[in-house]
Each structure stands twice: as structure tokens, then as C-alpha cells.
Amino acid sequence: MGDSHGIIKRYKFWIRIYNAIERPSEESPRASSGGRSGSENVGLSNASIFTDIDLSTDFRLSILTNSQMRLAKLDELRQAAKIEVEMRFRKKRAELKTKVEMRVLLILKAYKQRRATLKERTSQSLLRRMARESKYKERVCTAICQKRVAAEKKRLALLETEKIRVRARVLEV
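RESULT FIELD:
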């Protein structure tokens, strides 16, 4: 809406300039009545032109000022948006960093638990193996002892039979 107002003002300004330029060529009714000479009429129109030029300069300066104010406001908005984006970026980055750290901690915890479980399984496996080996050794030792006892009995039986044979010979003689 402000832009259409400016267009209308510029249009009116150029119409005034055009009219001011065209007026000196026409005879004004006052000039024909003898009130003023033609040079006075041109002087007045020149003064009107200079007034219009001064007004147009003021108008241009106000447009320039308004434009600069708009640009300054846009720059402030841009800066505010930039700061807001940077703050959101930092916040999001901090959130992601926290999430990553939590995930890393969970992964490390799971890894430690897996290692502890594996270590426990290995420990249990070694204990079972040692128990099996211990039982096996015990069985082997028992079997060896039994064989020794059997061999000893057999040797004693052979000695006993030899003793009986020797006694029988001695009695025969």
C-alpha cells in the first residue's frame, strides 16, 4: 500500500513539473491584463520548478531514508534469524552429542556384559573340564590300584602254590 502511495506522489510530481514547464509558453490571464510582464511570469515558473525540485529532493531523501530503514530492519531480522539458527544448531548438536554419548555408553556396557558372560562361561567350562579330568584321574587311579591288588593277589597265590609244592617235595623226600 505504501508503494502505490509513492507511485501516486511521483506521478503528481512529474505532472507539476510538466505543467510548470508548459505554463511559461502560454499566456497567463494575469499577464494579458497587464499586471506582470512575461519575464516575471518565467521567473515565477522557475521559482515553482525550483520549489518542486526541492520537494522532489526531499521526497527522494525520504524514500532513501525509508529504504535504508527497511534495509536496516531486514538486516536486524536477518541477524536475529542467523543467531536463532546458530542457537538451534548448537542445541541440536548438544542433543545429538548427548545421544551419541548415551549410545556409546550402552554399547560399552553391552560389550562389558558380553565379555563378563563369556568369561563366566569360560570359567564354568574350565571348572567342568577340571572336574571331569579329576574324576577320570580318580577312576584311572582306582583301576590301577585294583590291578595292583589283583596282581598282588595273583603273586601271593602263586607264592602259596609254590610253597605248597616245595613242602610236598620236602615231605616226599
